[in-house]
Amino acid sequence: MTVIHSVEQHYAKMLADGELRPDPDQQRTVSALNRLQSELEAVPPRGSVLWRFFGKKPDTPRGIYMWGGVGRGKSMLMDLFYDALHIERKRRVHFHEFMQEIHGRIKEQRKKAEGDPIVPVAQQLADEWRLIAFDEMVVNNSADAMIMSRLFTALIEAGVTVVTTSNRPPDDLYKDGLNREHFLPFIALLHDRLEVLSLNGPTDYRMDRMAGSKSWHSPADDVATDAMRETFFRLTDYSPEDADKVKSATLEIPGGRTLHVPKSLKGVAVFSFKRLCGEPRGAADYLCIARHYHTVLIVGIPQLGPQNRNEAARFVTLIDALYEQRVKLFASAATEPDQLYLEGDGKFEFERTVSRLMEMRSDEYLALGHGSREAAESEAA
């Protein structure tokens, strides 16, 4: 039996087994990831005899920025690289979650000492990790944009190698954002210190995984539950045997509130209708979900009426947020969208929601990339 040690060997086996199709963009990226794996594994552990023998901190291996459309294999290649990499002090984290953590660390550092907190925070991270791998780098707010150049410069100078995926090339990050001129040094840093590689090959693997999957299941019975479970595992490339790898998460909502996510993996989240719309929630909650996850599964949507008009109003706001961020929606419900809310306050507004729900089931919508519809239309213009 052949022992597989490198990302390149993993990728070659997947090609040979027919799990993947030949793709020059992927092959070029695999070669770069394989190079980085070798460089990282060649550095002796910190504090070892070899480290002391060389007498200086080893050079930081150059990181990688993988960008491209949805379904082109970015997360899959990140999986292969991260799983194959045999080093201590490595971390993989969703970019949004990481930036929330950074703001928390900066706040704590300011309590401890005066002056710029960025360098001490970067050093803390460098003491913990040699490699940080980010899923879905995206910049949606000025608070992140203002600190990213200094933060990542300090991280790399402190010895941290960065690998990240994104739907956008570096030059399109934070496009048309407030005070974007302060963000431009970060873009220059990405080009200078990371190898930028595009993944825009001919095969959309996400659409392949969704092929044959219904996005709306009614009624919400055991058959629908089984179908939703199967959809989750297909979208995340996991099987029910890997259920222990599916984690819950907590989103921090602006204003100091939090939202519990029962299940999340690789940008896919699962919620119950009761959790999303049966509790006091607003547009900020739903926008945070829509920006954080490219796909959302909602289970147990009931038929609504005058007795639960508040839940219906929240559902309208939720679908607006998901639609505007082009989030892919899979749901189990008591009935079809056009029968969900037949009478009650806000019925007229709900008709727009029905129209959006129907559009969100189309192949054209499912093929869209995740992110602001307004920003995408602006770029297209």
CATH topology of the largest domain: Rossmann fold
Count the domains.
Answer: 2
Estimate the mean pLDDT confidence: 86
CATH superfamily placement of the largest domain: P-loop containing nucleotide triphosphate hydrolases
Tell me roughly what share of residues is in helical segments: 40-55%
Number of helices: 16
| N/C terminus separation | 54 Å
Structural class: alpha/beta
- The geometry reads as globular
The largest sheet is:
6 strands, mixed
How many strand units? 11
Low-confidence blocks of residues: 375-381
Query: What is the highest CATH level, the class of the largest domain?
Result: Alpha Beta
In percent, how much strand structure appears in the residues?
Answer: 15-25%
Order of helices and strands: HHHEHEHHEHEHEHEHEEEHHEHEHHH
Q: Can you name the CATH architecture of the largest domain?
A: 3-Layer(aba) Sandwich
**Strand arrangement, largest sheet?**
6-11-10-9-8-7
Radius of gyration: 22 Å
Question: Which labels suit this protein?
Answer:
six-stranded mixed β-sheet, 381 residues, 16 helices, single chain, 11 strands, Rossmann fold, alpha/beta
Task: Describe the model.
One of its GO terms (biological process) is cell division. It holds the Pfam family AFG1_ATPase. This is Cell division protein ZapE. GO terms for molecular function: ATP binding; ATP hydrolysis activity. Keywords: ATP-binding, Cell cycle, Cell division, Nucleotide-binding. The protein is 47% helix and 16% strand. The strands form 2 sheets. It has a 6-stranded mixed beta sheet, with helices on both faces. Strands 2-3-4-1-5 form a 5-stranded parallel beta sheet. Mean pLDDT is 86; it is low at 375-381. The chain is globular. It folds into 2 domains: 7-198, 3-Layer(aba) Sandwich (Rossmann fold); 205-366, Rossmann fold, CATH 3.40.50. The protein has helices at residues 7-16, 24-42, 49-54, 74-84, 95-112, 118-128, 142-157, 184-193, 205-210, 222-236, 273-277, 283-292, 309-324, 347-359, 363-366, 373-380; strands at 63-67, 90-94, 131-135, 161-166, 194-198, 216-217, 247-253, 257-265, 268-272, 295-301, 328-333. It is of the alpha/beta class and 381 residues long. A hairpin with a 2-residue loop joins strand 8 and strand 9. It has 16 helices and 11 strands.
